Amino acid sequence: MRYILIFYLVLLFSNLVCAHQTNEVFFEYIQKKKTVQVIAEFPWSIRNALIKFNHSLENSTNKKDFENTFREYINKNLILKNKNGHKLQFKEFNEIENKGHYHQNNFQIIFKGNNVFEIKNTIMFNLYPNQVNYNKVSANNKTQTFTTNKNATHFYLNEHSYTKYWCLLILTTPLIYIISRYSNKKSSIMCNKNSD
């Protein structure tokens, strides 16, 4: 009985000790009035991605070298554009407290600007061929979720709503044509019967 109890306790608390997959990163984008804040949960392997991006870090123990490389890495791999196609300026990043996972690094990344329309997210694609980035975007009291990977490196906000309207229009046009043809046939049959 004691072993069963221990087993269930281990299962209950396993979420605290289980690591995120090393090839998955979670991003949450929050659009403010003049900035876009990105909360990023990186696995421990972000260090390896930075070293692969800048080989001089292999022998470095200086935190400033890693911070400068991280800044360059973000500038190259996380690109936010507004509706006019202009790139939002990367402003700063801050390390934030982990949410119970000691095998990850959490950062707040701030971009100057608003009206985000396109996001390109290729973070850690240089490390894993099967890298997946989960992107949750909150803007205008609306939340959308997207994933980026090697085959889909960017996404557009509000794209899906326009696509749905076009699909609806394409589907309803033949339906309207069929209904009008059917009603015309029915009315011509009724007219023929009345004339007899």
Strand content: 25-35%
Please report the total strand number as a whole number: 9
Oligomer: single chain
Shape: elongated
Strand order of the largest sheet: 4-5-2-1-7-8
| Biggest beta sheet attributes | 6 strands, mixed
Mean pLDDT: 82
List the secondary-structure elements in sequence, H or E: HEEHHEEEEEEEH
State the domain count: 2
Span of the ends, CA to CA: 91 Å
What's the Cα radius of gyration?
26 Å
**Regions with pLDDT < 50 over 5+ consecutive residues?**
7-19
Explained architecture:
With 196 residues, the protein is an alpha+beta fold. The protein folds into two domains: 2-157, no CATH class; 161-196. It is built from four helices and nine strands, in the order αββααβββββββα. The strands form two sheets. Strands 4-5-2-1-7-8 form a six-stranded mixed β-sheet, covered by helices on one side. The longest helix is centred in the C-terminal third of the chain and has 37 residues, at 159-195. The radius of gyration is 26 Å and the shape is elongated. The N and C termini lie far apart (91 Å).
SSE layout and pairings?
Elements (H helix, E strand, L loop, with lengths): L1 H16 L6 E8 L3 E9 L2 H8 L9 H15 E5 L6 E8 L7 E9 L3 E6 L10 E8 L2 E7 L5 E3 L2 H37 L1
Parallel strand pairs: 1-7
Antiparallel strand pairs: 1-2, 2-5, 3-6, 4-5, 6-9, 7-8
